[in-house]
Write a structure and sequence with these properties.
Length: about 750
């Protein structure tokens, strides 16, 4: 195979989704993957969808999607294959691999330089390591299950999306571990699915802590406006995340009298019902395409809420040729594209002893010496650079005092004073491990400095709509002229080409366009936004692609342009609805909290507003009858008693966790998931880390506290040889600065 990871040999001892998705990403990048199924076969073969709906383990569409391009082998051949592999991937309960005779000591004897990627529900250590779980109960324990309809139980995120999340983090962790490669040691990458789900939420524990500090309720949830609404021919998402968006929506609908009531409407004030009573009939008269086109013309983030059928007709996916024919059905293509680089040459000396350059010192971090220019905004790009900085890269984060990173305003309030834009814990948690520089890129001197920094950078990262960096002359062709081997990572919402190239979009748009929203919610209710995974998942996938590109550059000297379109990453982890529709012409209704193969749900307890989730293997009982029986019992019991009684019978069960409780989970404390840093303005916070541990490897998740605006201006610019007099001139002309004017 060809690709930036050509020559990498991976053995997969895994089933269902998380492990196979990690290795699918390796296949997409050119690695050779050999899949060894357990003696009973991969259970996903029995999941479906199947052509014509007739069960056939050899023709399961989802299995084919996750395992295309892999070689098959028997468990009897495992030892020989592992001996010549670079990476071994497994996702069974702790102890299973050892039960097959592959404990770490045995693996060391077979292959002393192996990277062992282990994905499990709660990790290989901690008091919960052997706890039973399903995707539903993991979502409950991590905060993924949220209220969608006040009259009904909270609802999970559908289409098994949560199971792809751990696989993506696993691929990132394994490629990071390959950069360490301590000779003579098996390097373990221990991925926790619980921590993976927590890592894709917008830091609810930090927000709860912040609201409590402000004397505000920790449970207040603002609804996106307008959110998902009915059009004449389907559902459409209109997502106002700024005051200007709201003003533009009110003007578009001819409802300017509501312009001053955005906050009250978002928080459910009495004006909310009146606004929707006026707005919904207006929208219901227009088609989805008409609403999206008009909204985008006004730069309002809007997108169709696609399902398994309409996503295949979406003009942006179609023009980009993203969905591909495979075995008689359509499936998502690769989540990343490498362009404008010379031919990719397989690594011929990529043998079992050395995969990448060895560390020069035992304590060296995997990205030590890597210079990264961070031109990102909000979450997806910043999440990637936060990760790189955590493990040794030198990150220069560029903002401006005229236009700071918009994420600074999320969860921050102007009433807090002149420095209110420094108080967003969402921005802080995404920008640890960086130095902050302000530059007015609309000025000649500011842009000149940015280009000087780019000329020194190994990697440049951005996630704006395409025209932003291009208008500044910071596109790939311009950067290559400054540094021929530069790697540019671009994460546009809709891609670098196609009819929607310049559309504006946020995570909610990505969830809606890709099909994530259509599979979440009750069958007789509206689609619901997951409101969490899209942004960080894009950052994780971009990280996987970047590490492959760094390996390609190490052996060829060539840079790359990496394009990671956010709607394509989201579609990759929402594959099943597309596959089922293309096989059978069926759009399966939303399932609420149900899942084929299980009797399960979210049920009330004797404590008001507290719910429990539980799953049992499917029985010959009607699901509605099962729900009634279980709810009749649970609503008379305290949640702790319910969970303890069920766990005693080895039935997966979890209480739905609230944001303010996320710091009180013993499993997370045992695994050191949180690390405390002192922010100069908001004080000490316990920030989430990464959902895996590498052993032997970095002892900590993060290195430095998040910076204040322009905190490192002098340090960075003096490093470029800029004098004190010139620094003073740059400040006087507002090219740099440390405060937002008139904040």
């Amino acid at each position: 195979m060809t690709g930036p990871l050509a020559g990498l040999h991976v053995v997969e001892l895994a089933n269902e989704i998380s492990g196979p998705y990690a290795t699918k990403l390796f296949v997409d990048l050119g690695a050779e993957v050999t899949k060894i199924e357990p003696p009973t076969g991969d259970p996903l073969r029995l999941w479906g969808p199947f052509p014509g709906g007739v069960s056939d383990p050899e023709r399961c569409g989802l299995f084919a999607y996750l395992n295309a391009g892999k070689r098959g082998a028997n468990l009897a051949d495992a030892a020989e294959l592992i001996a010549h592999a670079h990476v071994l991937v497994e996702n069974f309960p702790p102890g299973t691999l050892e039960g097959w005779g592959f404990d770490v000591d045995t693996l060391r004897q077979l292959n002393p330089n192996l990277v062992l990627l282990r994905i499990s529900h709660f990790g290989q250590s901690g008091p919960w390591r052997h706890r039973q779980a399903t995707s539903l109960t993991l979502q409950a324990a991590s905060g993924w299950i949220g209220p969608r309809d006040p009259a009904r139980p909270p609802v999970q995120v559908g289409a098994r999306i949560a199971e792809y999340v751990a696989g993506a983090y696993g691929a990132l962790g394994a490629l990071t571990a390959l950069r360490l490669r301590p000779v003579g040691h098996v390097t373990e990458v221990d991925v926790s699915e619980l921590e993976s789900l927590l890592s894709t939420l917008p830091y609810p524990m930090l927000m709860a802590q912040r609201m409590r500090h402000l004397g505000l309720p920790t449970s207040v949830r603002s609804a996106p406006m307008l959110g998902v609404v009915r059009a004449d021919d389907g559902w459409v998402g209109i997502n106002c995340l700024t005051g200007q968006h709201w003003l533009d929506v009110c003007a578009m609908l001819g409802l300017s009298e509501f312009a001053e009531h955005q906050i009250a409407i978002m928080l459910g004030g009495p004006e909310r019902a009146e606004f929707f009573a006026r707005a919904e009939p207006l929208l219901a008269k227009q088609t989805v395409a008409e609403i999206v086109e008009l909204s985008q013309a006004l730069r309002i983030p809007a997108a169709p809420v696609n399902d398994g059928a309409t996503v295949l007709e979406c003009p942006q996916y179609a023009k980009r040729g993203f969905f591909v024919e495979s075995g008689g059905f359509q499936r998502p293509g690769s989540p990343f594209r490498f362009t404008d680089a010379a031919s990719v040459t397989p690594l011929r000396n990529f043998g079992p002893k050395i995969a990448v350059a060895s560390r020069s010192r035992p304590d060296e971090l995997p990205f030590a010496g890597l210079k990264v220019l961070d031109l990102s905004t909000f979450w997806a790009g910043a999440y990637l650079t936060c990760y790189l900085g955590a493990f040794g890269a030198e990150i220069v984060k560029v903002e401006s005092i005229q236009r700071p990173d918009g994420f600074r305003y999320s969860g921050a309030f102007p009433f807090e004073g002149d420095d209110w834009y420094e108080r967003s814990v969402l921005w802080q948690a995404t920008n640890l491990n960086k130095r902050d520089l302000t530059l007015d890129l609309t000025s000649r001197r500011g842009l000149d400095i940015a280009r000087r920094l780019a000329a020194q950078a190994d990697v440049v990262v951005e996630n704006f709509s395409p025209r932003v960096v291009e208008q500044f002359g910071l596109d790939y062709e311009s950067l290559v002229a400054l540094k021929p081997d530069v790697i540019l990572v671009r994460m546009p919402g809709f891609g670098l080409h196609g009819p929607w190239r310049d559309y504006v979009g946020w995570a909610l748009n990505i969830e809606q366009t890709s099909g994530m929203s259509a599979v979440t919610g009750y069958a007789d209710g509206p689609p619901c936004n997951p409101q969490g995974p899209a942004d960080p998942l894009v950052g994780v996938h971009a990280g996987v692609a970047l590490l492959a590109a760094l390996e390609h550059r190490r052996r060829t000297g060539e840079g790359q342009l990496i394009e990671v379109a956010q709607i394509e990453v989201a579609a990759c982890v929402t594959a099943e609805p597309v596959i089922e529709y293309s096989m059978n012409g069926v759009v399966r209704p939303r399932e609420g909290n149900r899942r084929r193969g299980y009797l399960q749900g979210v049920y009330p307890t004797s404590e008001d507003g507290v719910w429990v989730a539980l799953s049992v293997p499917e029985q010959p009982v009607d699901h509605d009858v099962f729900d009634e029986m279980v709810a009749a019992w649970t609503r008379t019991q305290r949640p702790t008693a319910i969970v303890e009684a069920l766990r005693a019978q080895n039935i997966p069960a979890e209480r739905l966790i609230a944001a303010e409780e996320m710091y009180d989970i013993a499993q997370l404390d045992a695994r050191g998931f949180y690390e405390e840093f002192e922010h100069p303005i908001t004080g000490a916070h316990r920030y989430p880390g990464w959902p895996f541990r590498i052993t032997p490897g970095p002892a900590r998740h993060h290195r430095t506290a998040p910076p204040t605006l322009g905190q490192h201006n002098d340090e960075i610019l003096r490093g470029l040889g800029i004098s004190d007099d010139e620094l003073a001139s740059l400040r006087a002309d507002w090219v740099i600065g440390e405060r937002v004017p008139n904040a």
